[in-house]
Task: inverse folding
């Protein structure tokens, strides 16, 4: 039995130590916002925050996680989708199919936590998640908007 701090709540999970954290979150805890995309940490659909850093959960075995680790999923990013990135994503209408967007949002939130005013090249370097629909221009626009919302509390 593993104890995990997920979105600020300690949960007990019974799974094998080599079970990827992605499947623990989805199948054992029921947090399905984190998506399976490729299973090899390339696409980023499974992105979460682990101790404040964006990580690809498909490649993190449960056995590497301790109760002291803080896991944040898309469901725990904010109350009522109020995080500046979530607000900007909606305002810019970033998603097309939407499948990769929870991972994109988690990556953008981690970027802005480290660099509150990123330039285009910073966004391009940090946002390595794959969007099969090609919404990269809207993603960049939304990251810039979220940076403005984050510092002013409002759009603009």
Result:
């Amino acid at each position: 039995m593993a104890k995990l701090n997920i979105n600020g709540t300690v949960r007990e999970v019974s799974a094998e130590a080599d079970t990827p954290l992605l499947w623990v979150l989805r199948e054992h805890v029921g947090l399905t916002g984190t998506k399976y995309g490729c299973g090899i940490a390339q696409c980023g659909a499974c992105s979460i925050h682990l101790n404040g850093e964006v990580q690809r959960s498909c490649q993190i075995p449960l056995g590497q996680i301790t109760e002291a680790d803080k896991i944040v999923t898309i469901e725990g990013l904010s109350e009522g989708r109020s995080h500046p990135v979530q607000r900007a994503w909606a305002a810019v209408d970033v998603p097309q199919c939407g499948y990769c967007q929870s991972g994109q949002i988690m990556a953008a939130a981690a970027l802005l936590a480290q660099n509150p005013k990123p330039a285009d090249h910073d966004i391009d370097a940090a946002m390595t998640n794959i969007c099969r629909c090609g919404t990269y221009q809207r993603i960049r626009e939304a990251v810039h908007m979220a940076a403005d919302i984050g510092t002013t509390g409002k759009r603009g």
Q: What stands out?
A: Residues 57 and 122 are 23 Å apart (CA to CA).
